Amino acid sequence: MDAREMSSLADRLIDGRRSRKPMDVAAALAGLSEADAYKLQFAIHDKIAASGDRLAGWKVALTLPAMYEPLKLSGPVFAGVYQSGLRQSGASFDKGWPIKPGIEPELVARIGKDAGPGKTYTADSIRDHVANLHCGMELVDNRYVDVSKMSGPARIADNVLQAALVVGTEIKDWHKLDFAGLKGRSVLDGKELASGSGRAVMGSALISLAWLANRLISHGRHLKAGDLVLTGSVHPPAFLAAKGVARTEFEGLGSTEITIR
Which tens digits make up the pLDDT trace of 184-215? Predict the structure, then answer.
């Protein structure tokens, strides 16, 4: 894909998102490789940042083979989180956006110091780069006419359904956590929609975070102090069939709540 085609596709996706109408872009993105998908994602990041909405962090997604293999991807994926998508627990979202919302329970890491190039990060070494850890929620958006036609690389290019990062309860003694044994769930108006364990996040949120640090470096980027990171969901997106109060919880740790109007 040449630079002109890349720029044209980036503009089309940006315009589609801003329209807040379901996008019909699967055919235009059908031939993307994973490598070009990330180049397109980064091109979109740069254009949106130039308009004033800078990147505030990252997300990790599709953390299990059962999630990425059906999309013919080589492994888990990552995408950016924009400043405009940051929310605190208790936030409300008005009718019309997200178009088709879904929720995921995720731990949110606030990076305390850069995880730059020159080393390979592990679950142990990445701990030193985490300033705070919170219970959190990713709000995703099925913003497509037919998401089933969106290839894996197409989803990477369009930021893997990312809509918002919602920060919930801070976890004070997170160094002592049994990350693999964490239990999370998603609830709408008191009714459980889905649940899962910390093992679904590559075995541990710290493994996921170290993976992200290494992958970003391989793409010429790195985790920076102040970044917020959605480390991966304990279950696939729980799409909301109706408006109401949506909540994600981690047993014994805390919760995150939003209202969809």
Answer: 999 999 999 999 999 999 999 999 999 999 99
Q: Is the dihedral angle over the CA atoms 14, 15, 20, 22 positive or is it negative?
A: negative
- Kindly state the tokens that stand for 213: 């640090």
Cα four-point dihedral sign 162, 53, 25, 217: negative
Among 152, 159, 147, 180, which Cα is nearest to 230's? 159
| pLDDT tens-digit map of 163-173 | 999 999 999 99
Please name every residue paired with 77 in a beta bridge, in sequence order, or none if there are none: 61
Alpha helices in 95-222 (DSSP H): 152-157, 205-218
CA distance 257 to 236: 18
In this prediction the pTM is: 0.97
Average pLDDT score, the chain = 97
Closest-CA residue to 111 (of 21, 20, 231) = 231
- Mapped onto helix, strand or coil, the DSSP state of residue 42 is helix
In order of start, what are the domains of the chain with their CATH numbers? 3-260 (3.90.850.10)
Question: 213: closest CA among 113, 86, 98, 126?
Answer: 126
How many CB atoms neighbour CB 216 within 10 A? 20
